[in-house]
Structures are given as structure tokens and as C-alpha cells.
Design a protein that fits this description.
It is built from three helices and twelve strands. By secondary structure, it is of the alpha+beta class. The strands form two sheets. Strands 1, 2, 3, 4, 9, 10, 11 and 12 form an eight-stranded antiparallel beta sheet that branches. A four-stranded antiparallel beta sheet has the order 7-6-5-8, with no helix packed on it. The chain has helices at residues 2-16, 43-47, 158-161, and strands at 18-22, 37-41, 56-59, 92-98, 103-107, 110-113, 116-117, 134-139, 144-148, 164-165, 169-178, 184-185. 13% of the residues lie in helices and 31% in strands. It has one domain (21-185): Umud Fragment, subunit A.
């Protein structure tokens, strides 16, 4: 009986409060390593709290994002020109770099909002990828967020498949718990 109650409580906590996630790729290096584990706050989206630039978020990307596609043909050096109305079944983890209404460009992997370079000491910049230089400004639509990985040359993100609707956000990563040498807050 005690085991069943404990299991039920654990499932409820995971479903509504805090969910663990494993980092599947190099897109968030150096901040998060492959196979590192994080805890994600699932309450924030339900309370309607806004996210801030710099927050690390777990979300469902647009369908096709797991294949680096937005479903519309477009030049490699430009973001998806049309919103993808369906979400993927895959979970992604990225950093919020653009808020609703921001006019955003990317130069050598660095984000500029309204022409001003953002202070991002946590990134691994790159000028060598097709989406590392998006000179045509992107205006982030209302209720959407522009997401990018910290490893700018190795991240499939909003540069390829466009901004993410707020309703597809699962929650904000707030702590790491594995491996023990990397335990801490984000």
C-alpha cells in the first residue's frame, strides 16, 4: 500500500509540478552536457507567467523540427517564413533569446535585439553554420518565443523552424541533478 501511494504521488508530482528531463544533444553545451539531467518547473505555464530572455525552457517545437525542417522551402540563412501550426511529439530544451514583439537578428551566432547585441556570456558562438548569420530581422509574434541553443553552431532551433507558441511550453528548467559533479541551479 505504501509503495502504491508513493508511486502515485511521484506520478502526480511529475505530471503537474516538476518533471525530470535528460539532455539529448550538444545544442546546450557548454551550459548543459549531453545526458545531463535537469528538473523542469511545470507550474509556471499553468499560472500564465511570462518567460524572460535567458530562461532555459523545455517545450514542444513545431512539427518537423526534429528533422530540421519547418515544412516550407526557404533559404538556409533565413528562419522559417511561415508558422507551423502543428507541434512535434518531441521535447526540446533551448534558451529564450527573443520575446514577443522583439526584432531579432543573428550575426556570427550572437543575438541582436533592435540592433543591440545581447549579453550572452553562456554561449559557444559560431559563424560557420547556415543559420549563424540571420541578417534579415525576425519579429517575434505575440505569444511566441524565439529559442536558441547555447552551442550556436550545433543547435537546431528557432533559426530553422521559427518561434515557438507559448502554449507549447512545458516549463522552465531550474536545476540540474545529474551527474553529481554538475548538481546546481540554472
Amino acid at each position: 500500500m505504501i509503495v502504491a501511494v508513493a508511486l502515485g504521488l511521484a506520478l502526480l508530482i511529475q505530471a503537474f509540478l516538476v518533471k525530470p528531463f535528460r539532455i539529448p544533444s550538444e545544442s546546450m553545451v557548454p551550459t548543459l552536457e549531453v545526458n545531463q539531467r535537469v528538473l523542469v518547473d511545470r507550474i509556471t505555464p499553468k499560472l500564465g507567467n511570462d518567460y524572460s530572455r535567458g530562461d532555459i525552457i523545455v517545450f514542444k517545437p513545431p512539427r518537423g523540427a526534429d528533422l530540421n525542417s519547418c515544412g516550407v522551402n526557404h533559404p538556409d540563412n533565413q528562419p522559417c517564413p511561415k508558422e507551423t501550426p502543428e507541434k512535434s511529439d518531441t521535447n526540446f530544451i533551448k534558451r529564450v533569446v527573443g520575446l514577443p514583439g522583439d526584432k531579432l537578428t543573428v550575426k556570427q551566432g550572437r543575438v541582436y535585439i533592435d540592433g543591440e547585441e545581447q549579453d550572452e556570456p553562456f554561449i559557444r558562438p559560431s559563424a560557420d553554420c547556415a543559420t549563424c548569420n540571420l541578417e534579415k530581422p525576425v519579429t517575434v509574434p505575440p505569444d511566441h518565443y524565439f529559442m536558441m541553443g547555447d552551442n550556436r553552431g550545433e543547435s537546431a532551433d528557432s533559426r530553422e523552424w521559427g518561434p515557438v507558441p507559448e502554449k507549447w511550453i512545458i516549463g522552465k528548467a531550474f536545476a540540474t541533478y545529474w551527474p553529481p559533479s554538475r548538481i546546481g541551479t540554472l
